[in-house]
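Annex B. Sample input.
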Amino acid sequence: MAKLGNIPEATQPVVIEMPAPTAWPIILALGFTLVFAGLLTSASVSALGAILAVTGCLGWFREVFPREHHETLRVVAKDVSLVTARQAVDRVAITSAQTRAWLPMETYPISAGVKGGVAGSVAMAALACTYGLWKMGSIWYPINLLAAAVYSQSIKYGDQLLSFHADSFILACVIHGIVSLLVGLLYGAMLPMFPRRPIILGGLVAPVVWSALIYAILGVLNPLLESKIDWWWFLASQSAFGIVAGFVVIRQSRVPTRENVPWVLRAGLEAPGTMREHDHGAQDGSK
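Annex B, continued. Sample output.
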């Protein structure tokens, strides 16, 4: 341990007191985790979590009340010398035009994300309907399956998934359209941060992560729906969306980022000191 400030080494304490290590916070955190996990699994899991949470609270309180628990550590003093071979201090070149680098310097407009989301949604829907026609003999199977994510009653009877239902069709179109637009906007915002091989990120990495997340969550929330999904075709559809959406987005023209622009200008508001002064003389002469 280094010397304590300017205190002479001879007068430094031989030992110091430190808070004693304890595992009660971990037990408390595990208890709260099991309490909420039991809401999705079983009441017995929540009961076990409640017991661990109460036990963790009591144990942690006893560590600090009525007196904090400490342990004694021996101080080992040693000299620390800082040596450098540099003869001069390096300076960062700062231009007068811009004093800070905003990364990325350019991004895609919102319209690029919208176009990518629309194009990706068409590619994804085409591949999903192809799967339904080839594997199940009906293009309505994937559409009804998507609607079942909200209206779960439609999957209790297998024959209903193969026929047309107007309410399920409208619900599936709304879900598919909203999610596609949101993901397209997300692609437009993220792809400039990954300038190298954006198609691999949008068409392979993101769909794999997204599909694995949905597979893990759906197996707990709705096992019946999870059992009716062909996950390899689901992954292929997600990849088709990512590749097409990413390709459409990166073909759009980029615009400079506006992080260094005052908020009032980004919001389209006029404020003194931020807007250019109006040339009243020119305006009067033009009237």
